[in-house]
Design a protein that fits this description.
Residues 170-192 are annotated as: Disordered. The chain is of the alpha/beta class. The protein has helices spanning 14-23, 39-48, 64-69, 80-90, 98-118, 133-140, 151-158, and strands spanning 3-7, 29-33, 52-56, 72-76, 125-127, 141-142, 147-148, 165-166, 171-173, 179-181, 188-189. It starts with a strand and ends with a strand.
């Protein structure tokens, strides 16, 4: 059994990419939306599901027990401006004052999204917000076997995580030959 988890800020397209991956699988697989379960119930659903599991939700990586259950963790980046924009489009049908929606977003959703963004450090893969899902789906789904790829196992055998991620305080050479310091707590994505 392989557990593939998608996480990202509220407003990111977690459901769409999860359903896209799920639709490509022929092997028995379960699709779980974390918003439909409490943390304990979601953990139980993952453990008792037959076959592979695809789970998605914004707060999955914040829960250590859930995080440890996931074999492949993918974080979908989305900046705060786009999160606010998507929130306003979703509530547009509701005729409340736009200022009330913005205030609600700033007081409730944005602080949670800031916490969720910190949980990106636990991801095995991070999809930049401007990227297409196609390349990521191609990496995650074995098209020939119609199964979730053995990505986690293969990555660990061939490439250390450091190849893709530089830790904080890492000295990086710039094009001019000068060194620049990466700010503490930051993560760099190196595209190969």
């Amino acid at each position: 059994m392989t557990v593939l988890a998608f996480c990202g800020p509220i407003g990111s397209d977690l459901k769409a990419i999860s359903e896209q991956c799920f639709s490509l699988l022929t092997k028995e697989c379960t699709l779980l939306d974390s918003s439909e379960h409490t943390s304990g119930a979601l953990l139980f659903a993952i453990e008792s599901a037959p076959g592979d599991v695809i789970v998605f939700g914004p707060e999955i990586f914040l829960d250590e027990k859930l995080r440890l259950k996931c074999d492949i963790k993918v974080f979908l980046e989305l900046d705060a401006d786009l999160c606010l924009s998507k929130h306003l489009r979703l509530v547009q049908a509701n005729k409340l004052n736009v200022n009330e929606h913005i205030e609600y977003y700033l007081n409730n959703i944005q602080p949670l999204n800031d916490e969720i963004r910190v949980s990106a450090q636990f991801a095995d893969l991070r999809r930049p917000q401007a990227s297409s899902n196609e390349a990521l789906v191609g990496l995650l789904i074995n098209a020939q076997e119609k199964t979730i790829s053995e990505l986690k196992k293969n990555c660990n055998e061939f490439l250390p995580r450091d190849v893709f991620w530089n830790s904080a305080n890492h000295q990086q050479k710039t094009g001019s030959g000068k060194s620049s310091t990466v700010s503490p707590g930051s993560t760099q994505v190196l595209f190969v």
